[in-house]
Design a protein that fits this description.
The complex is a heterodimer. By secondary structure, chain A is α/β, with parallel strands linked by helices. Helix content of chain A is about 40%, strand content about 15%. Chain B is built from 15 helices and 15 strands. In chain B, α12 crosses α14. Classes of the chains: A alpha/beta, B alpha+beta.
Chain lengths: ~500, ~475
């Protein structure tokens, strides 16, 4: 009998009924983690000495979970999958971790990620490429690659992720699970190693929507250490999750979803968009009013570049603290402190990150700032306003995630991508521009690989978002599905 | 040939506060390195800044004092550069939207009122401090994150005297407003000086001298640069004056080139995404305005016009808030202004200088001073005795009153009569001789009375009674 591949509700019931103990759950989780490490390389650290916690009425108590390696965990190695921090042991917990600990949770693994959250396919962790448990030749998506792969493989019912562009919501789709990032500031970012502060969100990967609500309920809250956090104590994300959604209105954007915009569409993409339409029908059958809306393709085509400019600019500044002087591996250079910092960074960062630093520095330079950084901020506002306009009429925007199932790892390494699909690949970044709550759920298979659909709502509207996602998920057969390949 | 000298100043002043400007560590000057440090001060990953609203209030207070325009929204920006003393790799400052802009303030330069224009004043954080040894350097993060107020003047100052007068004035104003200790010895005030020379209305090439850490050095830097630049201009080598950054070498008393404008660092300023801009209401600003005390220039005017002090004495008194407050406390106790001023500017300032303590810690509070002054005015003690009591009270930390009781003159006629009668009774020979015409013995009797009363008997009364009894 296994438990780690079940929902939180079922595991909790088993614990309360004394069918299983917290200690046994940890054992099962660790065994699966070691197996998955061999096939998918999903972890930076497997916490073999994890201790059981007292089981209480709390649904999370005594149950193992995974932590993306950019959440500071006290006394536990936290690397953000970067060589610049490959020996760094924080002496403080991220606020989200402290909050979870109040629920007697048991962290059993620190999951691998694209270095500092930069990257979307899981090929940049300093511990090596992470693989998709549905098919190990495929990418699990990134940057929360280890978290997505391990939840999909049934190592534990949930793992923490972070999302700056789509780093929770895309890997969730590629791994056939649920990925949810709540409204910006609902979960404190204190202790989350930053990528781009104005876009960074904490969140979670689970195998059903209810569990996502439960976990974020436990992570969230106003934090005196994060000025961008806000008080959500009156919001219970799961209390109304089962409400009827007959009166709800959802829209999808023609310029993103219509096959006519992709003249060279692959078979996979054609399938993906057809499958998306099927999901819309399911939603309609639930009584939801689903409508097609238009957003200028001109504006949509700017999403990716706005994201690159803003995220790289903030990243280059955010990561200027990584000098190897007071933490991180110190360079061998002893005489010149500037050489020392330079060497630490030259050796520590992967080429992808360095490329982004160059872009970030370039767009922030005095002579370029107006043209790039400030214009990006303006266009960001226009895009956010376009979505806010939709939210005046609709409870959520529904869109397909990516252009199909998980790509092949070798194609990712060779940077093979289709520019035609850029909007489809990058539109989830709007959720970060606006700080919108956004959730991906699995909505089918293409060539035996899972694909996902995304729902995004206006800020502070998390409850309604989860309500719709939960009802839709219940009407489809993919809830709590497990990738069997990973643990063979 | 005479040149028009134009000077602009940047004055950085550490603010007083319980905790640092963006973290919870204590903001105190500590001798133990790295004892006031939180994870944020060392920029450990994932730590975030929290704005200290007390520091913002103090910054607004100074912006108001400088008659600046105050923005409706408070916001902070990042100044990005790498240096071992800058743990985050950027400094949080206010670049796009400083707490105060377009201000001005009147100062006194040799008794003349000069108006200094303020470009802006902004709140930022200090860097860590570095100590360099022969083959190693150490970092003390205690100073990292200490609140700094940076004040930038317009290029409107025209001499080293004006520059120093302005800095002195601002230091005293900071202290008046209780926002800073303003102690240059602790490195709490640091300046950058911009100097340019020109023959006409247009400004000449600007040379910046960074990190000048005392007002004396500011004067020296300006004098040195005027000499250096004018001799270059005289020699027809004006082209050698470059827009550059120099530093002051305290040992050689020279400015030394650091880098040219072409090598200037691009700080890539942008809004700090971790600090959401927030609205400052008019009401909040007005509440802060109420906490501004009467400032030195206004006090000086009152002292001269209402209390008749000389301009010189008034200037001495307003220089330090503690002195001015002491003076005003004296006035409240109805000590005549001129008397208070005299005691203060001579005895008291001399004394605290001699024993080297701040006036705040001076034992002889105004009410104690009043005890001495009252006794002196009533003729109970002589001015010599007053001086003695003044010193003794400070030395032994006892109220002057205690000494007044010991020292006070004996005025009781009955008592004196008794003493004199006693003396006369014990000296029948001398009494006889006096009565026989040896009149100079009168002084002998007075001396005996003084001896008996250890000098306290009122001499006039004594003489009167002696005359009567003899």
């Amino acid at each position: 009998m296994s438990y780690m591949d079940k929902s939180l509700t079922m595991i909790h019931k088993a614990l309360i009924n004394k069918e299983v103990t917290s200690k046994e759950l940890i054992k099962e989780s660790l065994e699966k983690a070691f197996k998955l490490q061999k096939t998918c390389n999903a972890f930076v650290s497997i916490l073999e000495d994890a201790k059981e916690k007292e089981v209480t009425e709390d649904i999370l108590s005594g149950i193992p979970y995974g932590i993306k390696d950019n959440y500071a965990t006290k006394d536990i190695l936290t690397t953000a999958s970067s060589n610049t921090l490959n020996n760094y042991v924080p002496f403080y917990n991220a606020t989200a971790i402290d909050n979870l600990n109040k629920h007697n949770v048991v962290g059993v693994a620190k999951t691998a990620m694209d270095e500092f959250g930069m990257g979307g396919v899981g090929i940049t962790p300093h511990t090596g490429i992470v693989k998709n448990p549905w098919d190990v030749t495929r990418s699990p998506g990134g940057s929360s690659c280890g978290s997505a792969a391990s939840v999909a493989a049934g190592v534990y019912p949930y793992a923490l992720g972070s999302d700056t562009g789509d780093s929770i919501r895309k890997p969730a789709a590629y791994c056939g699970i649920v990925g949810y990032k709540p409204t910006y500031g609902m979960i404190s970012r204190f202790g989350l190693f930053p990528f781009a502060s104005s876009l960074d969100h904490c969140g979670v990967l689970t195998r059903n929507v209810y569990d996502a609500g439960v976990v974020v309920n436990a992570m969230k809250g106003l934090d005196e250490n994060d000025m961008t956090s806000w008080d959500s104590k009156d919001i219970d994300l799961v209390k109304e999750i089962d409400n009827d959604i007959k009166d709800k209105k959802v829209c999808y954007i023609k310029e993103i979803c219509d096959i006519t915009f992709y003249p060279n569409a692959s078979l996979e993409l054609q399938e993906h968009l057809k499958n998306f339409k099927k999901t819309l029908d399911i939603l309609k059958n639930l009584g939801v009013k689903v409508e097609e809306v238009s957003v200028s393709r001109e504006l949509l085509s700017k999403i990716a570049s706005v994201y690159v400019v803003i995220s790289c600019a903030e990243a280059t500044s955010n990561m200027s603290n990584l000098t190897g002087i007071s933490f991180g591996p110190r360079s061998d250079e002893k005489k010149d402190v500037f050489k020392m910092m330079k060497e630490h960074r030259t050796k520590g960062f992967s080429p992808l990150i360095k490329r982004r630093f160059v872009i970030g520095s370039y767009v922030l330079q005095k002579e370029n700032q107006e043209r790039y950084f400030k214009n990006a901020a303006r266009v960001r506002r226009l895009i956010v306003e376009a979505w806010k306009d939709l939210f005046k009429t609709y409870d959520a925007v529904i869109l397909p995630v990516g252009s199909g199932p998980a790509p092949l790892i070798k194609d990712c390494i060779d940077h093979i991508s289709n520019d035609e699909n850029t909007i489809l690949e990058e539109h989830l970044q709007v959720g970060n521009f606006g700080g919108f709550p956004s959730i991906t759920i699995p909505n089918g298979f293409i060539n035996n690989l899972p694909v996902g659909v995304n729902l995004t709502s206006n800020i502070y509207n998390d409850k309604v978002l989860l309500n719709i996602a939960h009802k839709l998920e219940e009407a489809m057969p993919y809830q709590n599905q497990i990738a069997k390949g990973g643990l063979k | 040939m005479n040149y028009q000298v134009t000077i602009g100043l940047e004055m950085h002043c550490e603010l007083k506060s319980n905790s640092k400007v963006f973290s919870k560590s204590r903001n105190t000057f500590s001798g133990t390195p790295n004892s006031n440090v939180t994870p944020l001060d060392m920029a450990f990953p994932g730590t975030l800044p929290m704005v200290n609203h007390k520091c913002v209030s103090d910054a607004i207070k100074m912006a108001l004092v400088l008659n600046c325009k105050i923005p409706e929204v408070m916001s902070f920006d990042r100044k990005n550069y790498y240096y071992p003393d800058l743990p985050k790799g950027y400094q949080i400052t206010q670049f796009y939207n400083p707490v105060g802009t377009k201000g001005n303030i009147d100062i006194l330069v040799d008794d003349k009122v000069v108006n200094i224009k303020i470009h802006d004043i902004h709140l930022e954080e200090d860097a860590a401090s570095l100590d360099h040894y022969v083959d190693t350097s150490v970092i003390d993060y205690n100073r990292a994150g200490v609140p700094l107020l940076e004040l930038v003047t317009e290029p409107c100052i025209h001499s080293s005297a004006e520059a120093v007068a302005f800095l002195e004035h601002m230091r005293s104003t900071y202290k008046y407003c209780d926002v800073s200790e303003g102690d240059t010895k602790k490195g709490q005030i640091r300046c950058d000086v911009n100097v340019s020379l020109s023959k006409n209305e247009n400004l000449g090439t600007k040379v910046e001298i960074k990190n000048v850490n005392s007002f004396g050095a500011v004067r020296d830097v300006i004098e040195y640069e005027i000499k250096r630049q004018s001799s270059l201009l005289e020699a027809g080598k004006g082209y050698e004056i470059e827009q550059e950054t120099r530093r002051w070498d305290e040992e050689t008393k020279q400015t030394v080139r650091m880098r040219s404008k072409a090598d200037a660092i691009d700080y890539k300023y942008f809004p700090d995404p971790n600090i959401p801009p927030y609205v400052i209401t008019k009401e909040e600003i007005e509440n802060i305005r109420k906490t501004i005390p009467v400032l030195p220039m206004a006090r000086k005017k009152i002292y001269e016009e209402k209390y008749g002090l000389s301009s010189y004495d008034a200037k001495v008194i307003i220089k330090e808030k503690s002195v001015s407050d002491y003076f005003e406390e004296c006035l409240k106790l109805n000590i005549p202004a001129k008397l208070a001023s005299n005691w203060l500017t001579t005895s008291i300032l001399g004394k605290i200088n001699e024993i080297d303590i701040p006036l705040e810690k001076f034992y002889l509070k105004p009410e104690f001073l009043k005890q001495i002054i009252t006794a002196l005015e009533k003729g109970i003690i002589s001015s010599k005795q007053a001086k003695e009591i003044f010193n003794k009270a400070i030395e032994e930390e006892k109220e002057p009153q205690t000494y007044l009781k010991e020292n006070s003159q004996l005025n009781d006629e009955e008592e004196i009569t008794k003493i004199i009668q006693n003396i006369l009774d014990n000296n029948p020979m001398q009494v006889k001789e006096y009565k026989d015409g040896k009149s100079n013995l009168f002084d002998y009797f007075v001396g005996q009375v003084m001896k008996e009363t250890r000098g306290k008997a009122n001499p006039n009364i004594t003489k009167e009674i002696l005359n009567k009894l003899l």
